[in-house]
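At this stage, I needed to go through a protein sequence along with its fold in token form, as given directly below:
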Amino acid sequence: MTDTTLQFDRTAIDIDTAAPTAWTPATWFAVLSMAATSFALVSAEFLPAGLLTPMARDLGISEGTAGQVVTATASVGAVTALLSNVLIGRLNRKTVLVGLSALAIGSNILAAAATDFWLLLLGRAGLGIALSAFWALSVAVVARLVGANATGRGMAIVTLGVSLATIAAPSMGAIISDWIGWRSAMAMTAGLAAIAMLMQFLSLPTLPASTSNSLADVFRLTRRRGIQLGMLAILLLMTGHFAGSVYVRPFLEQVTLLATGPIALALLGFGIAAVVGNIVGGRLADTNIRMALVVTAALMAFAALALVLWGVHIGVAFGFATLWGLAFGMAPVVLPTNLSRAAPDALEAAGSLMVTSFQVAITIGAVAGGYVVDTYGATGPLTLTAILAASTVLLALLQPRD
């Protein structure tokens, strides 16, 4: 079957048997289109962090109320993650992905043009649908593009867009909003989504549905021990990360006694290390997923514990904040790949459970971290991170060897 401009011999790949040994230019282009989509979607997700003040002023609301645009994206995304692969039925997966990018374009334009808070929330809710549905499909699509044995490498490229967006979106959003206004900054994310959509249209092969999921199929997967362990690993490690990472800046201010400039450098080191972690995580996940999970969790546990014990020293604080960033960069590659190994016959349904687990972990981490920092001070959340990450190491050791 032919596609738009590139020719592909395969229409639907059986991931149990297909494992391409060499990536063609067409494969690279297709995977890069997925990375461009992740960059566009996550940039739009994190953009409000740099826009809250002018956004709140323009709409006549408080900054706290404006901050709920992030909550809207996450809460809608959590529900979407469970239902997306059920609702798309037998639709061609390429059509779905292009459609999700189109939804992101429309949602970002609506948010940029919003004249009141409720229209802004509506736009952000649309983004939440596009974001979660994309990630729910991502592992299955990447496996079909590159083969099951290279899924880690493929996902490393896709999640590279996440790391880059995490670094760039808040700061660039603040700069652009100061220059030409927050609405223009929001509209630019629609442009990013349009570029990603064009890349998808040109590069993705036709991807006929290999299965049609029901909600019962999704929940039936949770009976598998590997799925249970994979979801628990996501919940433990990501709850720990988000419980502590939000409070790294207060820790550096109150314990290490750093000023704003050095803190910015430490956070930049965290972000750059996360990009490196994407690459390392992809290679290690394809080689030995059990070891990849152990290494990822152990690095995060050690980094968080070292900050608690010796974070008063500036050099130590910089070094272990960077190590934490490396572990965090590995996690979005290793954790989904680990979960998918337990369901090679149902990757889309597993993707729904993966995204839901991430969203639940983010929510629990935010609540737990807030309680712990108020109760035990700046070192409390980092201690919780170390404990939960260490628990993930023990969990990984229970998994069967590759």
